Every structure is written in structure tokens, then in C-alpha cells.
Amino acid sequence: MQEEEFDNLLKVIVVGNGQVGKTSMITKFATGDFTGQYKKTIGTDFMEREIQVPSKGASIKLMLWDTAGQEMFSEITRNYYRGAGAVVYAFSSVDRDSFEAIEKWRHRVLEECGDTIAEVLVQTKTDLISQAVMTPNETESLARKLNLKLYRICTKENKLVDEVFQYLSEQYLDKTAATGTSTNTTATKAPPTPSKAGSSREMPKSPVHDVSGQEATSPKDKFKLEPSRQRTGGRKDARCSIL
User: Fold this and answer.
1) Residue 86, helix vs strand vs coil
2) What's the CA gap between 105 and 17, in Å, rounded?
3) How many domains does the chain have?
4) For a Cys-Cys bond, which of 16, 55, 60, 157 suits 90, CB 3.0-4.6 Å?
5) Is residue 218 part of a domain?
């Protein structure tokens, strides 16, 4: 298998309960495609995309690991957490259980990856915000409790999807720069284990971003962001049926 050389390579895992929209989010980010058909992820799935990080004057290749949310696959997916440099914790606006499970998912990730991993909290399906089963105050309180930035995204309309991964990339590069850790990696088709990041855990200055691109003041703010570019081809099975 031919090897490729990348200056910066980041393994990102996306975790959360089943049917919250993890696969839809990854597919939209990696390929620009969206489908409303739900297909259960069995174990893990993998996609990739290279992006520019203008604030750091760098490019980075993201190796995106989509993990199954069903408990029956928990031991399988935990094996894929190791070596991750960043994680997305995802919950659905219309699934209370997925929201309440976030702390459990975080505990599992930190057990395997340590507390230096770059993290972000993501609320999906904001096109259904009128049916939300948790309040904005509850989601913001959870973000503060866990010391995480919160993004409220809409994959169907491609709102704030790119921004989630831009933020994680910036955090990862900041952490590796702070510790002097090299991000130079040689990769084949499947991602290797990237070096872990630094230990900085300051509270984000703007801890909540909704689909308006502004710090959240209302769950019904209007959409303003541009759609992402279509990038690499990849598997296009969707993770949820309504995003």
C-alpha cells in the first residue's frame, strides 16, 4: 500500500448514543453529501478530509472515526479510542437519553485517551429545536460543568459542521505546540496513532455556538453560514433519518 506523508495528522473520534446523527455529520463534513436514511454503524466506520487552519497557518488531515452508539458494540469501539487526538461528544435535540449519556461517554474516552485530548460538545438536529427535550440552560450548564465548548449544529442545512472540526483542529495544534509534541506522521489508508496533545484546559471564551454562528442567546436564531466544500469521496451511509 502506498504511503503518504502529512505534516499534521489528527485522529478524531465521534461518540454518543445511536441515532444522534454522528455518521451524517461526518459524511457531510468529509464529502459534502447528506442522506436522510438511517443505517446503524456496526463497530466503527472511517472517513478523512484535509483542511486548512488559517488561524495557525497550517493544513491538517483529519482521520474521522465514527463509532457505534449501541451498548452491544461498546467494547469494540473502545479499542478505537486509543491514539485519538480529538473527540466530538454528540447528542440529539430530540433524544433526552443521548443528552444524559454524555458524561458516560466522556468518562470512557478519558479512560482510554487521557485528559489531554481536544474535546467539543455538539448538539445535533437543531432544525427540530421546537421539539427539543432539553432546554438551552441545561445544555449550556452541561458545557460549563464539563468545561467544553458547545456547538448547536444542523447537518441537514450544513450549519456549523465545518466549524466543529476547525475548532478541534485549532485546539489540537495549540496543545501540540504548547508541549513541543511533533505532529509529523507517515500514514497509509488507516490512520496511525497521533501524538497526544498538551494539558491546557482553560474554559473557552465563547463556550456556546448555535447555528447563527454567534454566541448563543436563543435556540431559534437564524442560519447564516455558508455550506462546506465537497472533498474526498467516501462511504455515504447516513447515521440519522431526519438531519
Assistant:
1) strand
2) 9
3) 1
4) 16
5) no
Residues spanned by the domain of 139: 4-209
- Residue 215's SS3 state is strand
Task: Give the whole-angstrom CA distance, residue 21 versus residue 43.
Answer: 16
Distance CA 201, CA 175 (A): 10
CA of residue 47 relative to chain centroid, distance: 13
**Could you tell me if residue 226 is inside a domain?**
no
CA dist., res. 168 & res. 170, Å (int)? 5
d(CA 216, CA 205): 13
CB 204 within 8 A of CB 163: no
In a domain, 199, yes or no: yes
Q: What are phi and psi of 91, to 5 degrees?
A: -140, 155
CA distance linking residue 164 with residue 225, whole number of Å: 13
Please list the rounded mean pLDDT of every run of 10 residues in the chain (243 residues).
64 93 92 62 72 93 83 67 95 97 95 94 96 97 98 94 97 86 43 38 61 44 34 36 28
Q: Name which of 231, 169, 232, 171 is nearest 201 in CA terms.
A: 171
Instruction: Give me the count of residues in the chain.
Output: 243
Taking the model in full, what pTM does it have? 0.74
CA distance 222 to 8: 35
Q: How would you label 49-60 residue by residue, b for 16+ Cβ within 10 Å and e otherwise? A: bebebeeeebeb
- Classify 39 as helix, strand or coil: coil
Which spans in the chain are helix H?
22-31, 74-81, 96-100, 102-113, 136-146, 161-179
The answer to whether position 58 is within a domain reads yes
